[in-house]
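Batch manifest, entry 17 of 40.
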Amino acid sequence: LAFGLRGHLYRSPDRGQSWQRLETGTEATLTAALELGPGRFVVAGLAGTLLWSDGTNGTMRRQDLPGRRGVLALARADDRSLLLFGEGGAQRAEIAP
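Output type: structure tokens
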């Protein structure tokens, strides 16, 4: 994955030989990502944005966190939840199905 300003997100299926742009539906700067399993990942950003991959065709589901505070880092808490770190301090979020 490569991501950053204005919600730009790219995925390479072949270790960087080619890149596919993924539609995010946001212009929030993306700051962190975490792999959740084969083909599944979550990307976090400013304005409390979380982008969940569906694990198949690159479709992203956008979630806006209450309070819209930026997320700067992610960690796996357990099989069902993540820890989010950023403007709102540390908080827990359930992993989207």
